[in-house]
Amino acid sequence: MSTSLHARFAHALAPLALAGAFAFAPAAQAQEFGNFFPAGDIPKGLAGIHPPCRGKVKQVNDTVFEGVKTTAWNFAMLGGGGEGGRFDPVPVLSTKVNLTAGCLNAHFSALVGSKLYGVSNMTLFQVTLTPAGAAAPMHMAGHYETPYGLPAPAVALTAEYDVDMLGANFYQGIGTGPGLVAPGAYRVDVWWAGGPVGGGGAIGAAFTLKLYQY
Questions:
Q1: Apex CA 103: angle with CA 146 and CA 135, to 5°?
Q2: How far apart are the C-alpha atoms of 125 and 137, rounded to whole Å?
Q3: What is the CA radius of gyration of the chain?
Q4: Average per-residue pLDDT in the chain?
Q5: When comparing pLDDT for 55 and 114, which is higher?
Q6: pLDDT in tens, 159-168
Q7: pLDDT of res. 27
Q8: How far is Cα 208 from Cα 108, in angstroms, rounded to an integer?
Q9: Are the C-beta atoms of 209 and 95 separated by less than 8 Å?
Q10: Quick one: how many helices (H) and strands (E) in the chain?
Q11: Which of 108, 109, 112 is nearest to 161 (CA)?
Q12: For residue 153, what are the contacts with CB-CB under 8 A and spacing of at least 6?
């Protein structure tokens, strides 16, 4: 990690410390968290209904935040954003798309910081679609459906020492039928939170969302 980026990450810890009290707000759930993969899901798992997609790319939509962001939100807390309400209520990235019949593919990447920065040892993310005028976000295909046994689909990464790069792909079929969403105007949001074991929020940088329609 470069000296300048390390300094930027360290500087970002100040607002995180100020928000520390928020991380222990009454909304936090009093329960024991075991492993990311619940024992009951091994080896059967829980498969979502997402038909496969094929096609040629018609449009690309990119959005990015290159700087450092922090969140005091923890996956153990209730009443947050995203599907399942376990993420920071303010998306780390957000953009609007007008979807036509076919498929939407999303690639998301970000640098995430380790416990070195006083945060949780794990960072969780979720990418969702929300129809215009609706309040309930829907996760795209590519998440693990029940992390820690909870209905709040996510992908996750633990930085080994300083920072690590997360890269994940998601997709959603557009049309009519099981597992598809109707064409129309949508908002795409990226939600995040610190892992529930041990407490703490999350720190990251270089958040990039690339959307392909085909």
A1: 55
A2: 14
A3: 17
A4: 85
A5: 114
A6: 999 999 999 9
A7: 44
A8: 6
A9: yes
A10: 3, 9
A11: 112
A12: 48, 83, 84, 126, 139, 143, 144, 145, 146, 147
pLDDT mean over 151-170: 96
CA neighbor of 16 nearest in space, from 206, 209, 194, 198: 194
Report the sign of the C-alpha dihedral through residues 194, 197, 200, 204, in that order: negative
Determine how β-strand 163-174 pairs with β-strand 59-71. Answer: unpaired
Angle at 95 between CA 164 and CA 106, to 5 degrees: 55
**Which H or E run contains 18?**
helix 13-18
Q: How far apart are the first and last CA of the chain?
A: 37
Assess whether pLDDT exceeds 50 at residue 44: yes
Rounded to whole angstroms, how far apart are CA atoms 187 and 93? 10
- Decide: 98 and 141 in contact? Cβ < 8 Å: no
**Residue 74: pLDDT over 80:** yes
- Position of tokens 């024991």? 32
Q: Rounded to whole angstroms, how far apart are CA atoms 106 and 77?
A: 27
Going by C-alpha positions, the residue among 85, 113, 82, 99 that lies closest to residue 180 is: 99
| 89-135 per-position pLDDT tens digit | 999 999 999 999 999 999 999 999 999 999 999 999 999 999 998 88
Q: What is the mean pLDDT of residues 175-186?
A: 92
Query: Which residues have a Cβ under 8 Å from the Cβ of 21 and sit 6 or more positions away?
Result: none
